[in-house]
Amino acid sequence: METKQVEIGATCHLTSTVYSGGSMDVYLDYIEHSADHWHSDTETSLDIDKDKAVEIINFLKDAFSI
Predict the structure, then answer these.
(1) pTM reported for the whole predicted model
(2) 22 φ, ψ to 5°?
(3) CA 44/CA 53 separation, integer angstroms
(4) Sheet holding 24-32, edge to edge
(5) Which tens digit of pLDDT belongs to each residue from 21-66?
(6) How far apart are CA 27 and CA 5, in angstroms?
(7) Which secondary-structure segment (H or E) carries 51?
(8) What band does 12 get if pLDDT is binned at 50, 70 and 90?
């Protein structure tokens, strides 16, 4: 298993994991910090499939005129 990570912010990162069989998972993980000390932080993990990855890449290319 091989894992790679790109840090977007202190509590937000992209993670890809390639398994020995060749399958791969990509997730956007982030923690939303609660402003109220009575409530805990919320950790979210979003699965990114190939179609969503292409959409994100095209969005960034347009946004940065790449």
Answers:
(1) 0.75
(2) 100, -10
(3) 18
(4) 2-9, 12-18, 24-32, 42-47
(5) 889 999 999 999 988 889 999 999 999 999 999 999 999 999 999 9
(6) 10
(7) helix 50-63
(8) very high
Cα–Cα distance for residue pair 39/64, rounded to 1 Å: 37
Structural tokens at position 47: 């699965």
Cβ contact 51:45 at 8 Å: no
Q: What per-residue confidence (pLDDT) applies to 37?
A: 86
Distance CA(6)–CA(62), nearest Å, equals 21
- The residue written with tokens 């805990």 in the block is 40
The angle formed by the CA atoms of residues 45, 43 and 56, to the nearest 5 degrees, is 35
Sign of the Cα torsion 11, 14, 18, 22 reads positive
Phi/psi of residue 56, nearest 5 degrees? -65, -45
